[in-house]
Every structure is written in structure tokens, then in C-alpha cells.
Amino acid sequence: MTIAQSSEQGITTLPDHTQLPDSDGTFVKNFQEHPQSILLTDSIQSKLDSIHPDQQYAIGQDCGIYWRLTEPPERGAECPDWFYVPNVPPSLDGKFRRSYVLWQEYIPPLIAIEFVSGDGSEERDLTPLSKISGERQKPGKFWVYEQVIRPAFYAIYEVQKASVEVYHLVENHYELVAANERGHYPIHSMGVELGIWRGQYSNVELPWLRWWDNQGNLLLTGDERARIERQRAENERQRAENERQRAENERQRAEQAEVELQQERQRAERLAELLRAQGINPEEL
Question: Sorted alphabetically, which InterPro entries does this protein's record hold (predicted)?
């Protein structure tokens, strides 16, 4: 971890998440980023709950990860569009996290994801801290993730190309992860795969970034699970209604058969009476 010497700035105590800015003054670049983050969080929630029955994990969506003390402080932070940190409390001192401060907590994210809104050069920038000058205020984003923040996995998602690149930290550098036979990228420590799913979410048809389990089953959002459950309930209701209708039809057929049998008996009795009236014993016929 790289932290500027506090004495250089006249600082005697390192700030925590409540003392650091939680915004750099910019806004989300397009309408897709916010629902994409929600989709990733909603669909992975039940999986993380099973991994962490004690609920000790944190998810950041467009939140700062502070790795270096600078002036202004924002220059010492990266802001992944989505990241997950295992084995940390979801809140600090009963308060929502304003940011994730590495010099406070030390545990790096397991995965950080960037959504590309430009040409992807920013997300792949390898410029090291040693190359920073007065004209350039921050090192490259890829370098910071690989060399300082060090999430085990770093993903770059490009909606315009309907693609995602996933990197795995191996011996202090990122190696590109190969897609499996399903075209997904395994994140074995989470028991999931990351990939592109083309479909409708939040009333928009796009190639969305999504999770699958390691058997290739799509991890569903709460709304998707509810829709499937409603459809299952409706199918069950329809099945029960069909069974009720079948039983009703069977009852009506049985009643009709009974009526026809009774009518046949009555015809036979009338015929027998007519024959007896003519002196003929119907039982001898």
C-alpha cells in the first residue's frame, strides 16, 4: 500500500472514512451504469449470504477506495463502479461507509469492476506512480488496481462492445482470464462466473454484465425470482383448475351415464309391461 508521508502535509493522524470526501464532484456518465450496478448486487446477494452467514462482507457501488493520502484527498482514491470485499463488517460503528479506506482496513476487494464509458484506455492505463508529474495528477487506473489496491480479480466491462475482460492477480501482476466453454469467466473463490447476458432489465434491452453459478445457471434478481414464483403459482393454479375441470367433466359424464342407464331401464320395463299385457312372458324371450 502506498501512503504519502503525513508529515509532509502536516498531518499527524490518518483520516478515516468519515473525514474523507465521498464524491469527486462528478456524476454518473450514462443511464446504464446505475441499473447495471444494482443488477450485479441484487443477483449476487443470496450467493454472498450463503458464503458469509455472519453477513461480514461489503459491496461498493461507485464508491471510493482510498489507497494514498494526497491533497486534495480525491487524487488518492479510485472509484470502481462495483466491488466486493469479503470478511469485513458491512458498516462501521453503526454507520454506512462513506468510502473504503485501505489504511484503516487492509483487506483488499476480491473483485473490482469498471464500466467503460469511453474507449477503455482509462481502465487499461498502466502509468505508474513514479511517472506522475505536475501535468498528470494520478497514476493509471490499471496500475493502481494491480500494484496497490490489488483486488484478486479486476473486470473491465464494455457495453458498446458487449464484452468483458477479467484479470486475475497472479504473482503480483494481472493475467487475463480465459473464458470457459460457456463464454463465462470463472471466479472460483466466489463459486460464480461472470459474463454477458443479452436481455431486458430495468425496461432496457442491452448486453448486461451478469453472474452465473459454477454450473452455468444464471443468478436471478429478486424480481426475476418473484416473477418465476408467480408464474409457478399461476401454473399450479391452472393445473389445479384443469384437474378440477377434469373431475367435473368426469362427474358430469358419470351422471349422464347414470341418466342414460336409468332411461334404458325404464324403456325395458315399459316394453316388458307391454309384452305381459299381450300375454307374453318377456323372460321367455
Answer: Uma2 (IPR008538)
Is 165:145 a contact under the CB 8 Å cutoff? no
To which H or E segment does residue 209 belong? strand 204-213
Q: How confident is the model at residue 72 (pLDDT cuts 50, 70, 90)?
A: confident
Name the residue with cell 368426469.
250
Domain count, the chain: 2
Distance CA 161, CA 189 (A): 27
What is d(CA 208, CA 224) in angstroms, rounded to the nearest whole number?
A: 15
3-state secondary structure of 61: coil
Chain-centroid distance, C-alpha 246: 42
Same domain, 53 and 192: yes
The mean pLDDT value for 47-74 works out to: 93
Length of the chain: 285
Phi, psi of 200 (to 5 degrees): -100, 125
**What CATH number is attached to the domain comprising 187?**
3.90.1570
Q: Can you tell me the distance from the alpha carbon of 166 to that of 38, in angstroms, rounded to the nearest whole number?
A: 20
Query: Do the Cβ atoms of 113 and 96 come closer than 8 Å?
Result: no
Q: Is residue 144 part of a domain?
A: yes
pTM as predicted: 0.78
* Omega prior to 72 cis, within 30 of 0: yes
